[in-house]
Design brief:
By secondary structure, the chain is α+β, with helices and mostly antiparallel strands. It has a two-stranded antiparallel sheet. A hairpin with a 4-residue loop joins strand 1 and strand 2. It is globular and about 40 Å long.
Length: 81
């Protein structure tokens, strides 16, 4: 059965996008370790495209600290060190 059929499918797709984000440090999926967006990420993105909804973006999901980024100032900007 397709994970995205039925009630809560957007919620499942959002959870998959949150877990299977591409790391800015090395370009790999944080959950799978494969290069670029993995198949789980792509499938969840297709669901959002077909539903005409936008996924929520959450700060620090891509783990920017892995490539030396740090928060500076009150605005919370990330700068590479």
């Amino acid at each position: 059965m397709n994970r995205y059929q039925g009630v809560g499918s957007i919620d499942h797709a959002q959870a998959d996008l949150d877990r299977h984000v591409v790391s800015r440090a090395d370009g790999l999926c944080v959950a799978c370790g494969v290069p670029g967006p993995c198949e789980v990420n792509e499938r969840a993105a297709r669901l959002f495209r077909s539903s005409l909804k936008l996924p929520q973006r959450r700060a620090d999901v891509s783990r920017p600290e892995l490539f030396g980024a740090r928060r500076v100032g009150a605005t919370g900007l990330l700068l590479a060190s």
